[in-house]
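B., you asked whether I could sanity-check this one before it goes into the benchmark set. Here's the sequence:
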Amino acid sequence: MHKRLTFKNFNIADWFSFYRIAISPILVWLLLIDKREPFTWLLLISYATDAIDGYLARRLKISSPRGSQLDSMGDQVTFVIGVIGVLVFDHTFILDHYIWLLLGFGLYSLQMLLAWRKYSKATAFHTYLAKLSAVVQSLFILSALFYQPLEWMFFSMLFIGILETLEEIVLIFIFDSWQSDIKGIYWVLKSKR
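And here's what the prediction gave me:
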């Protein structure tokens, strides 16, 4: 039997993660009315909450499977809205690189499909590579929105994102049950020796 999710059960780290999900309709609205500057500043705040929630959860020892899932969901929503923001405000750059984006999203979709099939929910491994990928993604998206998209940052984001997605796919095959906060394949294989 699943425990009913209520807001009173949220801890401080959960609220930072939830912010990223709750602000998404406002971000979409800002896209629709073509307000680049407020969109970009709110997106920056969303990325900042991503840095804060994990730190608080570890520091205050309040990590939980629910918090990991909220964090992952907030990350996914923020990333997708950020990419859509770059598409809306710098559509020429995205259209010039759409094949590469389709490759990245295709692999990501495969990873999500495998996770939902095996665990009935998205992964929340939060590997070191996933954290690096999130930082590089946010740097690319924010620099593209505040200034202009830079090709070398785009390909860095894509390369690290693909590596991270491939690592997640391997971890899905390694773990029979849902896990959170895994450092990475190296540490998993090291612990199995």
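One thing to flag: DSSP finds nine helices and no strands in the chain. Otherwise nothing jumped out at me.
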